[in-house]
Amino acid sequence: MTGSPGREQVSRVLQQHGALMVLAALVIVGSVAFDSFATAGNAASVLVSSSFTAIIAIGMTFVIISGGIDLSVGSLFVFGGVLAAYGSQYGLFVALALPLAACGLVGLLQGLLIARTGMAPFIVTLAGLLGVRGLMLAISDEGATTYLVKDSAFARLGQGGLFGLTWPVYITALLAVVAMVLLQRTAFGQNVYAVGGNEPGAALMGVPVARTKVYVYLMSGLLAGLAGVLNAARLSSGVTILGIGLELDVIAAVVIGGTLLTGGAGGITGTIAGVLLLGVIQSLINQVGNLTSAFQQVVSGLFLALVVVAQRLLGRAQRLG
Amino acid sequence: MSQSAAPVLEARRISKRFPGVVALDGVSLALLPGEVHALVGENGAGKSTLIKVFTGVHRPDGGDLIYNGSPVAFGTPLDAQRAGISTIYQEVNLVPMMSVARNLMLGREPRGRLGVIDTARMYGEAERILAGYGVVTDVRRPLRTFGMGVQQMVALARAVAIDARVVIMDEPTSSLEPREVETLFSVIRRLRDDGIAVVYVSHRLDELYEVCDRVTVLRDGRVAHTGPLAELERLKLIALMLGRDLDEVRTGGLTRFSRDRRHARERDGAQPAVRAEGLTRRQVLRGVDVSVWPGEVVGLGGLLGAGRSETAKGIVGALPLDAGRVVVAGLPLRTGSTTAAIRAGVGLLPEDRKAEGIIPALSVRENIALAALPSLSRAGVVSDAKIDKVVEVFMRRLRIKAASPHQPVQELSGGNQQKVLLARWLAIRPKILLLDEPTRGIDVGAKAEVQALVDELAEEGLGVLLISSDLEELVEGADRILVLREGAVVGELSGDDVTEDTIMTSIAERGAESDG
Ligand SMILES: Nc1ncnc2c1ncn2[C@@H]1O[C@H](COP(=O)(O)OP(=O)(O)OP(=O)(O)O)[C@@H](O)[C@H]1O
Ligand SMILES: [Mg+2]
Asked: Where are the bilayer-spanning segments (chain A) (predicted)?
């Protein structure tokens, strides 16, 4: 055999669970170093603030595994929030349905363009990013109008909860489980891996390549919209100035979680670990107190660079066995 | 095989044009249920193109496809697959990063509760299916961690497991070792007995005669001959493929290795062209020593996974080593650097041309000139005229069939891509050439040409390390043969000892010992 099973297994475990291990280490260090870190309150706040990024990152994981990228999610997140707040004046149903329909439609269009015309995902979703942001500015009078949430049932969706955690956390957990099953245990999930791993090969193996891509971008759009909806419910308003550069944070979390930016490998567990890792870093920096939050970005950036280097080394170890 | 049966799949006057070439020109072929139909022809004759028309990858420009008695037009490979036409393509087309089991079962995974994939059953089933092909392994490991042979078996198992009426195999044996080829043949015979039609493409004539019932010869996109294979003399078949007279072929247009070197020759030069000592890599190589003297052709024998390709890669620094050193013409080579190896005059023709060699989007010219650029340029400025000259020479000598030197390599037929890669390493005028399966996928005519070239280069003082699963090629080509097993050299044969039998025995003997 060309491979040495031991080495190959170690590198595979590191690839898949590296983020989780670092997360655990950071939590332990944080608990020892700061009294106020390992409190229920702090844990809850990390979970709550991470849940929105996590929902978007779940969709992004599918996109990246399929070999693509979705830059439009930050814009869709805000767009979804604004539409939800606007729709809430017509009741809970409209507050949910309107943004999901709109964001789903954008995702679907992007997917169709990418899958049918063969245009680069980077370009198509960059156009999506700009277009949706423009659209959103238009309906909010250049950001001057802020829509307040009018429906209290809807607001409760973002603010209510159980055991000190708000609903978005539970919704995220549920979505993560569903996504895991979808990715690992359904034909669709397998097709996503196959398309990202070897697109021409997948086509010859009978994988519906175009359809798989369309679904992936549709999903990403829907989830970005949903995250926006929940965020609007939490803040009781659709704030337009949020979410600039959010797509990059999400991509960073997914890659830190072990998903290959080149497609074909990755998973939901890693992504969730990646999102939490960024959340914990943020929280630790807050604990230190005299560091600004800009510092958090520096640390995240360093981390990302580290992960990408590690991935290359691990990838080499696996290939050469 | 029942001659009376109606064809299951039929091509009628199919034409297919690509920019600059007519790949298929009015090709008709009828495939009967329960027959194994050989499809042969030179590199670029149109075999793969015809197959891709059958399976919906290409749309024909003219002509009809008749399947089960009615005209069809498959839009995609999926359509063809659903209709019962299953294909193994020339280049292994699986997903390297996915596990063996997932590759094998993709698209028909066993379902458990709620329609969710039952992974336990999937792994069990994959193990069982592969065991039927003599592959016993951890099916959870990513496919890419296995050698080409295993990958090819997975592709085969996958194609056959799909409930098919027609199974098409485009050069399925190119990465298989003899034992696996036997397995493949028994699978093919089983398919035939079940009334399935098999299309079999190969450049290895022995195989054709062993397993095929009828043959269609393609030449330059046209059918040159169709008929029962057994009645067709071997030389006649070659003559048909090459489009030459039978007499011309008979009087030795096809000599292979021609030098007489059955006897140990005195070694020119005081030191070996390359000397590798104690090449070690955990679980792959265990202290391999190889020396090649100038003008000598050293063969590496052994089964797949014995460490032959790894030895070659270790020498050029493409495989990280735990221990060992390589000395080229007396000077130690910096380990782990392919650049240093090339500069020292060591060239490697890799086994997996798709992953490790060809740059698909670049032209034939650029692919050939790539490694030789430093020697073809002065002060970093590349001389176009020199490149043109080199490219022209090798395209002619290796008979590379391309519309022009500027055609992207990915548009060439599989065999012609292989020739381009070979030309690249010949163009650096190496001191030592490591050839890993140099004639795989190359047609009979060009195969002789490549072998003659290896001979000629050795005469000129080049040292050659030859890896080939084709024992005949090893025996005729090599002065000396090292037999590898499980990453270690277990035997050396030279002079009159070099025969197919002695190699086989050497491999088997050691096998029995270490198994016991
Ligand atoms: N996509 C393409 N674009 C342009 N030309 C092509 C393309 N595919 C094949 N050709 C050309 O069509 C001709 C036939 O190629 P084909 O791959 O069918 O040959 P083949 O008989 O399978 O050869 P081999 O034995 O080398 O595999 C060649 O001249 C090749 O260059
Ligand atoms: Mg071919």
From this structure: 20-38, 44-64, 93-115, 122-140, 160-183, 214-233, 268-288, 294-314
- Residue ranges lining ligand 1, Cβ < 6 Å: B 18, 21, 23, 41, 43-49, 90, 401, 411-416, 443
Is residue B112 in some structural domain? no
Burial of B339 (0-12, 13-18, 19+ CB in 10 A): exposed
For residue range A244-261, what is the model confidence (pLDDT) as tens digits? 788 888 998 898 888 888
Ligand 1 atom closest to the Cα of residue B46 is 18
Residue type present at position A150: K
B423 shares a domain with B449: no
Please tell me the number of Cα atoms within 13 Å of B147 on its side-chain side. 21
Contacts of A1 in chain B (CB under 8 A): 145-147, 283, 305
Cβ of A9: how many Cβ atoms within 10 Å?
14
pLDDT the model gives residue A321: 37
Atom of ligand 1 nearest to the CA of B413: 17
Whole-angstrom distance, CA of residue B198 vs CA of residue B169:
8
Task: Mark which of B252, B286, B316 sits at the end of a domain.
Answer: B252
Q: Give yes or no for A207 touching B (CB within 8 A).
A: yes
Picking from B10, B14, B63, B64, the residue whose alpha carbon sits closest to that of residue B35 is B10
CA B259 to each of CA A286, B87, B126, B442, B458: distance values in angstroms, whole numbers, following the listed order: 79, 41, 48, 21, 10
Residue B136 lies in a domain: no
Decide: A226 and A247 in contact? Cβ < 8 Å: no
Q: Are residues B374 and B337 in the same domain?
A: no
Q: How near does any CA of chain B get to the CA of A112, in Å?
A: 18
* CB pairs A-B closer than 8 Å: 102
Tell me if B128 is assigned to some domain: no
CATH number at residue B437: 3.40.50.300
Domain A21-320 has CATH 3.40.390: no
Would you say A52 and A253 are in contact if contact means Cβ atoms under 8 Å apart? no
- Which residues of chain B have a CB within 8 Å of the CB of A2? 145-147, 284, 305, 310
pLDDT at B356: 64
| B408 CA from centroid of ligand 1 (Å) | 12
Domain boundaries, chain A: 21-320
B119 to A321: CB separation less than 8 angstroms, yes or no: no
User: What is the pTM for the complete model shown?
Assistant: 0.72
Q: Are residues B288 and B193 located together in one domain of the fold?
A: no
B248, two tokens: 């011309």
The complex's ipTM works out to 0.77
pLDDT per residue, tens digit, chain A (321 aa), is: 344 456 666 766 777 777 787 888 888 888 888 777 778 788 888 888 899 999 999 999 999 999 999 999 999 999 998 888 888 888 888 888 999 999 999 999 999 999 988 889 999 999 999 999 888 888 777 767 777 777 777 778 877 778 877 888 999 999 999 999 889 888 898 899 999 988 888 887 778 889 999 999 999 999 999 999 999 888 877 777 777 788 888 998 898 888 888 888 888 998 998 899 888 888 877 777 666 667 777 877 787 787 777 766 765 554 443
Q: Where does chain A show beta strands of DSSP type E?
A: 147-148, 161-162, 165-166, 237-238
Q: Domain total for chain B? A: 3
- Tens digits of residue pLDDT in B423-432: 888 887 788 8
**What separation in Å is there between the alpha carbon of B416 and the centre of ligand 2?**
9
The residue segments making up the domain with residue B379 are 358-429
Which ranges of chain B have pLDDT less than 50?
Answer: 1-3, 253-255, 262-265, 511-516
Locus of tokens 């307040």: A148
Final residue before a domain boundary, out of B219, B252, B285: B252
The residue in chain A having the minimum alpha-carbon distance to the alpha carbon of residue B80 is A206
Residue B144 inside a domain? The answer is no
Best probe of the B interface among A185, A212, A319, by most B CBs < 10 A, is A185
Examine the domain organization and report whether B178 and B281 are in the same domain: no
Which residue, chain included where needed, has tokens 């659903």? B82
